[in-house]
Amino acid sequence: MRNEPSVHASEKIVIRDSTLREGLDVPTVDFTIEQRLRIARLLHEAKVPEIEIVAPSRIFEDKNVAVKIKEEGLPILTSGLVYSFSPHFREEIRVLSECLDRIDILMPVSEKRRPCCRNTKKSLLLEVLAYSLQYHSEVGVGFPHSTQTEPEFLLDISRECVEKGAKRVLVYDTNGSSDPFAVYDLIGLLRKNLKAPLFFHGHNDLGLATANSLAAVYAGADGLDTTVNGLGDRAGNASLEQVAVALHVKGFHTGVSLENLKRLADGVEQESGIKISRLAPIVGDFAHVHKSPGHLENPNLFEAFDASLIG
Question: What is the pLDDT of residues 254-293, one digit of tens each?
Fold first, then answer.
């Protein structure tokens, strides 16, 4: 792994927050529309530029939230997901094109998920992409299980989609099994060969989601998916607060209001009912508390960042 990033640290990294989608996949969490609106307001206050609010399995339910956010006039980009193999993709695309700023079409690249044939995956995705571009100008493609297939196949299908008009490519570490070195190599390969924005979506099954997200940026990723407090499937996703502060410390610019992160984290804790660990990086109660006598003379030497950064 190279020591220097392939992008300049001054370049802006886009944070897309997926709390309003991934958060609903956490056991016991069931946000009402009003709760989701309150979280959207908090995300806007924290200057998060884009929120993902529509899941491919809940399109007609989630689109109501998108409509409410649009009616409220929140100046924040909204996006959602559609399965390319959905038998209802035409209706889903038409509905979402009326209420979302961006749509991303998903095609799992693992041969263990339908459709299993790679040629069928490609042809179907290109068909849905072409249909979607008739209704919306901002359409991307996303590949669940990106880290569980051959990089050459991922590059091949991504490149063809970009040539046919896809506005961005989303790389998913769906089962959280990858590591920073593998992510760096994969994103680096795509970055070298694709002329489209690259986003990385990390899961935290091995506790590496934040590290993998940082590696993706070092390899040239333009954006990252995150969730507040790391909410998401199983062990969760890359935590917005961890990713935003880590990027700041490493010299990257996101535009996220770091001083609002604690308020945002506490708000999502209240709405979700999922408690923040007192040992959680960045926003945990103990993140800047010192007990060892050896720390007390100069505690700043033992902290990765100044607590005033997040208020």
Answer: 999 999 999 999 999 999 999 999 999 999 999 999 999 8
Task: Give me the amino acid identity at 51.
Answer: I
* CA-to-CA separations, 165 to 134, 138, 189, 290, in angstroms, rounded: 11, 9, 20, 53
Q: Mind giving me the DSSP string for 180-228? A: HHHHHHHHHHHHHH--S-EEEEEB-TTS-HHHHHHHHHHTT-SEEEEBG
Query: What residues are annotated to the active site?
Result: 295
Write out the DSSP string of 152-183. HHHHHHHHHHHHTT-S-EEEEETTS---HHHH
Which amino acid is residue 211, in one-letter code? A
Phi then psi for residue 279, to 5 deg, are: -95, 5
CA distances from 175 to 110, 111, 145 (A): 12, 15, 7
Homologous superfamily of domain range 14-284 = Aldolase class I (3.20.20.70)
Altogether, the residues listed in the chain come to a count of 311
Query: What pLDDT, in 10s, does the model give residues 26-37?
Result: 999 999 999 999
What lies within 8 Å, CB to CB, of 37 at 6+ separation is 65, 68, 69, 72
Q: Which tokens go with 153?
A: 């196949």
Residue-range domain boundaries for the chain:
14-284
Buried b (16+ CB within 10 A) or exposed e, 72-93: eebebbbbbbbbbbbeebeebb
